[in-house]
């Protein structure tokens, strides 16, 4: 436990130091250092969902390093008991693909109809430029698509004529000092001089309400990211960024079929949140400079090693970097969550019970110690603020449940 | 929630290796046996129950498997036995009525109500969506849908809506029941897994609760949303089924061909069914709190109103008017406050968080004296109680607190708080004429809290016509069928491993 706390302190100042040096291009050494950190761990290209997931865990030093090194946390522990079930049903994926295909079918007829109905502007003759086709599915293709997106946005925003839709617009952003590309579903340009960001989702809306409220929140966060990046893109091109509307568009099926319907929702609040998040992403070069040489995800991802060896390697890395386990956010956003949970439990860390409980225990080293304080054990000076209410809770609980006194510990 | 108590629970569970009771009583009605329902959907298909299992819990279950649930004919044919059985059970439960007297008014309410238990809250939402789909079905080619499907849809919708009511017991998600009554090392997110909760409560001998729940979490498949591995297996079996039926929608043909799919879903349902039965049996052993009867009486009343409404061909709005929304919110908030208060007043274990947070005091009565006190203009008799508390308390003067024994009556008002020994000495005045039932005796150990169990009611009923600030631009649409797209060709399943970015379709 003590080892973990010390290591956490080692990790945190490094992250704080990273944030002070913005807009410095990473030196070549940083790339080499991050490559060493990655080792043979599977990688992932930054995208809007990865960014949203990182937003939930950005206070964790291990998650920060994994993000900077582009490590796919969902796949590093593949084949172990700690691999989290992030896979998706083939039916769910098929439904999503079918919905997008429906929008594009017959010259985007459904997309034109839904935009016309929903935005009150005639899209029946609008030019629809499909940037998903005709470009290589690699970094070069993305760079070209980003360039086309930027040009079209600037042209139309400066001299609005007929509406144009960019299907698969690509927006470029610097994340932690490294360029990243974000692929938006639609950008409807020239709607009353505005550019409107659109996102397609295949979950249905019934009676005006989403059938999955969490998915709605995630979709609006994605749209907000595109709004922010679209504004930055226009700003870089010397065009008023305010042309990108804060009212994003969601296109979803309505009721039991796939027939699309459009919803407009203001995401300005979310845009500000995404802006704060992007500012908080530390510089990759600073992270690379701060990581000890011993840190690498290579052994953790090595499927030829026994599971125990991979867990040991994970514990070593997270002990060195530090970890912040918060069940509510980690379990939904980070592929390391089950492994971290195991480490936290092994150490008796109060974090296993969640942030509110952990924050209520300043100075108390472990859950075992909490149990002792609950029985009225004398508290040290550091434990005193937390010890009084715990002792009282123990006394009151035992008073109403006399048989509640803990028995022998089984095996923690 | 008191963080000190939660920390204590975490510490003790860590040390002892098993979950702890949060309550000494059971605060939810449990029928013997309730009707269990477990469902599995196809991934991403919110309205398609690929399998529905139902039956009295503790016994064997019936299983409806459509084969291809995205085919309306096959789907409805498979759902028909479930719908007919549900309707029958609902009607039977509402047949026998008893008189319920309230003041001068006597109402006839059902003597019982059909209780449905499901593994988790996600199933409640899934049943609500299924109910919305079935409750308003349109004709196809001049053929009216099976009336039992429509009636079952209305029942499911009612149950899912009623499930929002705090303390209700008509539709019971077992994950919530267990989490309310047991403290575990699981976070709220993890508590949605009933198998993990159960494993922490009764871990295998020699296994710590944490290890048991980790193992259960990795193995258990609860539904209704399938995991990737389940739907990979379903995909292969469904492809075989569709190839074999060669476009036939004859239920007899489908029945014969769907055996592998039925076996697949039977294997998934069986452990869930056993788990649900085990959880309900364990909770049934705990004595019920006194107020459970009152809350279930409210459930029976709502159930009776619903059954009468449906029998008369009534339709429900699918979108609330502003007035309905305001009244519903008020009703839910009121029910929540009363449920929390009843739990704490009847069960001292539930009062502990309030004692820790300073919303309740506990101590020994030093004296109770009657005085005449001028209230407004007249001198009236009032009781003054002096109470020595175990711990120091901070209560503002004039704060109203209720003695737990008379929590549905008048409050006591704090007159003075002074330090006394290790605790405090509080002087309180009763806000009504003293009667023997309202007064504790000297030397009694009593608890007073800010909680009371009196039903709140509108002092003013909201206006029939809401003010312009609360009128929507367009009035809520009347209930309409949502099944217009259910004859579309099903989307072909796609393996995520073949896509560069499968997360796009999450």
Short précis:
The complex is a heterodimer of chains A (412) and B (506). Chain A is of the alpha+beta class and 412 residues long.
Describe the structure.
The complex is a heterodimer of chains A (412) and B (506). Chain A has 412 residues and is an alpha+beta fold. In chain A, 51% of the residues lie in helices and 12% in strands. Chain A has 17 helices and 10 strands. Chain A has a 6-stranded mixed beta sheet, sandwiched between helices. A two-stranded antiparallel ribbon of chain A has the order 3-4. In chain A, strands 7-8 form a two-stranded antiparallel sheet. The longest helix of chain A is centred in the N-terminal third of the chain and has 30 residues, at 90-119. With 506 residues, chain B is α+β, with helices and mostly antiparallel strands. Helix content of chain B is 40%, strand content 19%. Chain B has 13 helices and 15 strands. Chain B has helices spanning 3-16, 72-95, 121-135, 147-162, 174-181, 194-201, 209-219, 228-245, 251-257, 259-284, 291-311, 322-346, 348-356, and strands spanning 20-21, 35-41, 49-56, 62-65, 97-102, 105-110, 116-118, 171-173, 182-183, 360-375, 378-389, 400-403, 412-420, 423-430, 445-449. In chain B, the strands form 4 sheets. A 6-stranded antiparallel beta barrel of chain B has the order 10-11-14-13-12-15. A 5-stranded mixed beta sheet of chain B has the order 4-3-2-7-8, sandwiched between helices. Chain B has a two-stranded antiparallel sheet with strand order 1-9. In chain B, a hairpin with a 2-residue loop joins strand 13 (412-420) and strand 14. In chain B, helix 2 (72-95) packs across helix 4 (147-162), helix 3 (121-135) packs antiparallel against helix 4 and helix 12 (322-346) packs across helix 13 (348-356). Chain B is globular. The mean pLDDT of chain B is 93.
